[in-house]
Write a structure and sequence with these properties.
heterodimer; A: mainly alpha; 2 domains; B: mainly beta; 1 helix
Chain lengths: 231, 310
């Protein structure tokens, strides 16, 4: 009988569908009663869904965060191999996709930093000095980050469109239309927040809000794509 | 000749076997696949805590927990459905209304199912234009619809509910809720524990409950929260243009942190908000009541924030 830690160690394999029947049953049984493992499983699946949503080839915009560009300049087109045998290898490939991987890391960094920056909260950081604010350490940081997020959303939108094109089901078309109308609402919120951020580029709270809107849009697009593909 | 006889004998056996297999397959499919337009009335034995998966693209699904180790389904099938597939094992019961793969011009697509499941079952229901009504189930539940209301009553172990246009109504004593809608409203009554609610244009309405960790996010929908965190719980609210109105216990020992870009902050607890900067119309407010074990954080772009006490 596996204990909590044994189960945690097998969550990756569970997501991959590579567990034996008895192990899978034990994991599923444990998941029913363990909120921590259930949460970790959801996070793994979410990460995997994002990794799978990445386009096969990415040509990064020229002005995308100079540090990232420096790292990827030798190969401006990064290709993801279609062979994806395990979660771990897919994850590694995801990390290797320079632009988006770095952008995602930057998102995490900024979210963490703005929530609990150098000795303070996001609110306290609102008028922090340039040296304290992650948003202001590089003059191109904010536009580059926003561009990276837009790029991610664009990729997710393209994938949804491609999945919808192949369908012959009126149910799927109805669902895709519903999702599309609501993504429009998110675009309005994004555009408002962006305009405010352009006026106040040092405002870490606004940057965090913008990230949150983009994350929400990505979540809606991923959900729509999952739905269309499953249907 | 011997070999011919043997061959002939062997061929006969194969024919008999294939006839038997065909018969078994036929009777099996008759038992599990109903035709369109038929009333549905099926039942299967099921484990008391097994998994029940229900797929119905359009119509209604009513799920009720009961004390028998049996899954039953009654209802009517849409005229344009190809059939109703009911199968699985005792630990994993599955049912699905089957439509033709090419389904662009169907007229009669609504199937109405009433499903009874063992009370401790895990129940997963999904569809597109579907209303789901679940009650009396104690296991984990996951409901998913695009256009249609989801209603959950009882005490499931945990709840995941997702819609796009439908409302989500949860009146349940449960420890974990994850509810996501886009334009539908989400209302929670008497829930507690770990809760995550997100909408885009839909409103969020929380009445009662004590939350260990609660996250409530909307873009343009309004948030109305009347409840409290546990003694060291965390509540986080985020809105873009919708208002956030929080009604909390007056003596709640908590740290409060409120921030808007351009929205107003009304605070009944005492301290007044200050402007975030001389260049922007936003406000912010931080204060602590008691020793501040719990935390309440509210962020809004242009929506108004109201903090009130009961």
């Amino acid at each position: 009988m596996m204990n909590h830690q044994d189960i945690k160690d097998r969550l990756n394999d569970h997501v991959d569908g590579s567990l034996q029947d008895d192990e899978r049953d034990q994991v599923e049984s444990h998941l029913e009663s363990c909120a921590e493992c259930s949460l970790e499983l959801r996070q793994l699946r979410s990460l995997l869904a994002r990794a799978e949503d990445l386009p096969r080839a990415i040509e990064p915009p020229q002005n995308l965060w100079r540090e990232i560009e420096r790292q990827i300049q030798p190969a401006t087109v990064v290709t993801v191999s279609p062979a994806q045998p395990s979660f771990a290898s897919r994850f590694r490939q995801w990390i290797l996709v320079g632009t988006l991987g770095a952008a995602a890391a930057a998102v995490v960094f900024v979210l963490t930093s703005t929530k609990d920056p150098v000795g303070g909260s996001g609110v306290a950081n609102r008028e922090a000095s340039p040296s304290q604010s992650p948003a202001s350490s590089d003059p191109d940081y904010v536009p580059s980050l926003v561009q990276a997020l837009e790029y991610q959303c664009m990729g997710a939108g393209k994938q949804l469109l491609a999945s919808t094109k192949e369908t012959e089901s009126q149910f799927v078309l109805a669902a895709a239309t519903a999702f599309e109308a609501d993504v429009h609402q998110l675009d309005l919120a994004i555009s408002e927040t962006r305009a405010a951020l352009e006026e106040n580029p040092q405002d870490a709270q606004l940057l965090r809000m913008l990230m949150s809107r983009y994350q929400r849009k990505l979540s809606v697009l991923h959900r729509a794509t999952r739905f269309v593909e499953e249907a | 000749m011997q070999s011919i006889r043997n061959h002939s004998y062997s061929g006969g056996m194969i024919m008999k076997l294939s006839t038997l297999v065909s018969f078994l397959l036929l009777t099996s499919s008759l038992a599990t696949l109903c035709s369109a337009n038929d009333p549905i009335e099926e039942s299967r034995n099921a484990a008391s805590d097994g998994r029940v998966t229900i797929e119905n693209l359009s119509g209604t699904v009513v799920v009720e927990g009961w004390d028998k180790d049996e899954v039953t389904v009654t209802g009517t099938l849409a005229a344009d459905a190809e059939g109703f597939d009911f199968g699985g094992t005792e630990s994993r019961t599955t049912m699905e209304v089957v439509f033709p793969r090419r389904s662009r011009n169907l007229d009669d697509t609504d199937s109405d199912l009433k499903v009874r499941v063992p009370r401790d079952s895990q129940v997963f229901v999904s569809g597109v234009n579907i209303e789901i009504d679940l009650s009396g189930v104690n296991g984990r539940v996951r409901l998913e619809s695009v256009n249609g209301r989801l209603t959950i009553v009882g005490s499931p172990r945990s709840i995941e509910a997702e819609t796009v246009n439908g409302d989500i109504e949860i009146d349940a004593e449960t420890d974990e809720v994850n509810a996501e809608s886009v334009s539908g409203d989400v209302s929670l009554h008497q829930t507690s524990g770990l809760v995550e609610v997100a909408t885009v244009t839909g409103n969020i309405d929380v009445a009662g409950g004590e939350f260990e960790d609660g996250e409530f996010t909307s873009v343009s929908g309004d948030i109305l929260f009347e409840g409290s965190p546990t003694s060291d719980g965390e509540l986080e609210f985020e809105s873009h243009s919708g208002s956030a109105r929080l009604i909390l216990p007056e003596d709640l020992s908590a740290e409060y942190e409120v921030s808007t870009f351009s929205g107003d902050i009304d605070n009944d607890f005492g301290p007044r908000p200050r402007k975030t900067s001389k260049y922007t119309p936003g406000q912010e407010l931080e204060f602590t009541v008691g020793s501040g074990e719990a935390s309440v954080s509210i962020t809004s772009f242009s929506g108004t924030v109201h903090l009130e006490y009961k």
